[in-house]
Automatic annotation (TrEMBL), chain A:
Top-level taxon of origin: Bacteria
Protein name stated in the entry: Glutaconate CoA-transferase subunit B
Biological source species: Ancylobacter polymorphus
Record's signal peptide: none
Annotated EC: 2.8.3.12
TM regions (residue ranges): none
GO molecular function terms attached to this record: glutaconate CoA-transferase activity
Coiled coil: none
Keyword set, alphabetical order: Transferase
Leading EC class: transferase
InterPro entries assigned: CoA_trans_fam_I, NagB/RpiA_transferase-like
From TrEMBL, chain B:
UniProt KW keywords: Transferase
One Pfam family hit: CoA_trans
EC number of the protein: 2.8.3.12
Protein source organism: Ancylobacter polymorphus
GO molecular function: glutaconate CoA-transferase activity
Protein name: Glutaconate CoA-transferase subunit A
Class in the EC hierarchy, top level: transferase
Length: 259, 281
């Protein structure tokens, strides 16, 4: 077995959670890498959808943006953005929405809007984009992000995309019928919500990772499942697929001219 | 009725100080040449509407042209933050701007409602989202049939919309291909529409019957500007200049560097510069 980085483990562990039957609404960055590794390994039949309107896309390199030409050229069909959000997302046709996050809390609520107060932000982040409705209209949500005490916080500064709110049946009380966050994959661990409280709970530690590592990089007190497993290390195929994809991507993105 | 004219005239005839305007394009076909012309002509107090403001509105905001920005994702796609827009919001430089922030679903619905001549858009959205608490234009309505609580936002009705497209016919019909975003809705929602195109063809014979075509009578002015979407791309013509977006992150990080870049590449340049910028893409 080759050695691998925590980032590679994160992407590969996230990829494994996707199946051939999934219709996946793909966020840019780490989610996009995981979705395409799944497509190139165990889930060749997966339907990948990007919010630019591309349905059933199969990019050879990872797009830099959600609307790169590669996505349209390899898609089954490309629809308008209003149609994407109305018929395909709001219509309930997405099985899994796959999101990244700047800030997250233990209930899978996501902030990508501001650090500090909304009216006087310390840092103005890009905002929600498609995420607020992806979070509530997809049948379920996967989240992937690197662990840090800045990113995984006791209280997020802004509720951009609703996860499980204050936990328990908070989604149902707001009239949200979908499952919400069911999986969080970080560079250190795999987390799933507790069935009752909905607090994210570590179910699997990546190889070589200790509980102390997880706690040091998380702003809330980490809860663990009764049986915490070790995440199986990347296989040769998974690792080669991811590295080849990243290499092709880096080559393609460096090829532009600049101004 | 679409009239062909030089870009400078198309912008001067259709944009006014204080207008509500949309320069649309969802990653693809972003009307950068038209925006640069608007910057050269120095319009002020604009309300800028766009789902994904990106480097184009970063430039207009940095030049002090915006009074208000209506948006749903203020990022440099795949790269990071919009540093000129941040400077305006966080430090009021070069002037304070108002913001009205939505989700993509809300803005896509609002453009569609604008195109449909409706006063508002209704959709299942913003549930649990805090934007609904900070933006008074996000409200709730009850479905009169089922009682379900739905989100409502005002429709978008720009004074003028700018888009870039691949082709115009000699008659002035416009063909948009690839990732079509909200361009059709943004044009139909607006009082006036200005289109820059890669080229003019005799007609659209042979084009698929379901292609995205805007009839000439929905458009005010057309200017032929090859490369006019750079650094975004035009499907079938040239690729996205990802390196330029990465470079923008550095240029926009510094006020002086930004000003110098704008002088060289926008103020002292013209629409003809765009063709050369995409020559090797």
């Amino acid at each position: 077995m080759n050695s691998f980085t925590p980032n590679e483990m994160m992407t590969i562990a996230a990829a494994r959670a996707l199946s051939n039957e999934d219709v996946c609404f793909v966020g840019i960055g780490a989610p996009s890498a995981a979705c395409n590794v799944a497509r190139l390994t165990h889930a060749p039949g997966i339907t990948l959808i990007y919010e630019s309107g591309t349905i059933g896309t199969a990019p050879d390199v990872l797009p830099l943006s959600i609307g790169d030409g590669e996505l349209c050229e390899t898609a089954l069909t490309t629809v308008s953005v209003p149609e994407m959000f109305r018929y395909w997302l709001q219509g309930g046709r997405i099985t899994t929405g796959f999101l990244g996050a700047a800030q997250i809390d233990r209930f899978g609520n996501i902030n990508t809007t501001v650090i500090g107060p909304y009216d006087k932000p310390k840092v103005r982040l890009p905002g929600g984009g498609g995420a607020p409705e992806i979070a509530t209209s997809s049948q379920q949500i996967f989240i992937t992000m690197k662990q840090s005490t800045r990113g995984m916080v006791e209280k997020i500064d802004f509720y951009t995309s609703f996860g499980h709110g204050d936990g328990g049946d908070h989604r149902a009380r707001l009239g949200i019928a979908t499952k919400g966050p069911v999986l969080l994959v970080t560079d250190l661990a795999v987390w799933r919500p507790d069935p009752e409280t909905k607090e994210f709970t570590v179910v699997s530690l990546h190889p070589g990772v200790t509980r102390a590592n997880v706690q040091e990089t998380c702003g809330w007190k980490v809860a663990y499942a009764a049986d915490v497993e070790e995440t199986p290390p990347p296989t040769e195929l998974e690792l080669t697929t991811l590295r080849d994809l990243n290499e092709r991507t880096a080559r393609a993105h460096a090829a532009g001219k600049g101004s | 009725m679409a009239r062909f004219m030089p870009l400078a005239d198309a912008v001067a005839d259709n944009l006014r100080n204080g207008d509500t305007t949309a320069f649309e394009g969802f990653t693809h076909l972003i009307p950068n040449a038209a925006a640069h012309e608007a910057i050269r002509q120095g319009f002020t107090d604009l309300t800028l509407i766009r789902m994904t403001p990106d480097s184009l509105y970063d430039q207009m905001i940095g030049m002090g042209m915006a009074k208000k920005v209506v948006f749903s994702y203020a990022g440099n796609p795949g790269v990071g933050l919009l540093r000129r827009m941040r400077d305006a919001i966080e430090n009021q430089w070069p002037r304070a701007i108002e913001t009205e922030e939505h989700s993509h679903a809300a803005m896509a619905n609002a453009y569609e409602a604008g195109a449909a001549g409706l006063p508002c858009a209704v959709f299942r959205g913003y549930r649990g989202a805090q934007l609904a608490q900070v933006n008074p234009n996000i409200r709730q309505v009850a479905c009169p049939f089922t009682g379900e609580t739905l989100a409502a936002v005002p429709s978008i009705r720009p004074d003028v919309t700018f888009i870039h497209a691949q082709k115009a016919s000699r008659r002035g019909d416009v063909l948009v291909e690839g990732i079509i975003g909200v361009q059709k809705e943004a044009v139909l929602a607006a009082r006036r529409a200005v289109v820059t195109v890669e080229e003019v063809v005799d007609d659209f014979a042979g084009v698929h019957p379901n292609a995205c075509v805007l009839p000439h009578w929905t458009i005010s002015a057309i200017a032929v500007v090859p490369g006019g979407a750079h650094p975004s791309y035009a499907h079938g013509y040239y690729a996205r200049d990802n390196a330029a977006y990465l470079e923008w992150d550095k240029i926009s990080a510094d006020r002086d560097l930004f000003a110098a870049w704008m002088k060289t590449n926008v103020l002292d340049a013209g629409p003809d510069a765009f063709a050369q910028r995409v020559a090797d893409l």
